[in-house]
Design brief:
With 156 residues, the chain is an alpha+beta fold. The protein is built from 4 helices and 7 strands. The chain is elongated.
């Protein structure tokens, strides 16, 4: 009788261990593929920023955020927490990866966020690079350019 009880206890422990490892791996796989979670977390970190569009990396570990005023942001899954970073104009360097579907990004103001971000398609990578391109130009540069541009009714 005691052998049967021990067998049932052993089976219950093995079943519990299996279920917990499956739940943990599923949570790890889901990461940031849920864009609703990304919106909530980024909104909590930056409540005054209005989100216009999101783009998730292929592995789901990063979400790039396009904001209403042509700024951009990044949200990364760093194992035990989510890190949100608002990308200020002039504080990022971007180079394409050899695959054409990724971007190697260097954050001047936050080197801990540097990395290579691969997207599902080259079009998604190009879209994010355009968002970041808007961050290359500071407002002071735009003002200088507008001052140097002649009015539209100027004729030669």
């Amino acid at each position: 009788m005691s052998l049967i009880v021990w067998g049932v206890i052993f089976a219950a422990v093995i079943g519990f261990a299996y279920l917990t490892t499956r739940m943990a791996s599923q949570t790890k796989e889901d990461s940031l593929h849920d864009t609703g979670l990304a919106i909530l977390e980024f909104g909590r970190a930056f409540p005054k920023e209005a989100i216009r569009q999101l783009q998730t990396t292929a592995d789901g570990q990063g979400v790039f955020v396009r904001l209403h005023d042509n700024k951009a942001g990044l949200m990364r899954n760093l194992r035990s927490h989510f890190a949100c970073h608002l990308i200020e104009p002039g504080t990022v360097r971007v180079t394409p990866t050899p695959t054409g579907r990724g971007l190697a990004i260097e954050f001047i103001d936050g080197p801990s966020h540097n990395g290579v971000f691969e997207f599902a398609t080259a079009a998604e990578a190009a879209e994010v690079s355009l968002w970041l391109l808007g961050n290359y130009v500071s407002e002071a540069d735009l003002e200088v350019e507008q001052a140097a541009t002649p009015p539209a009714d100027f004729r030669q």
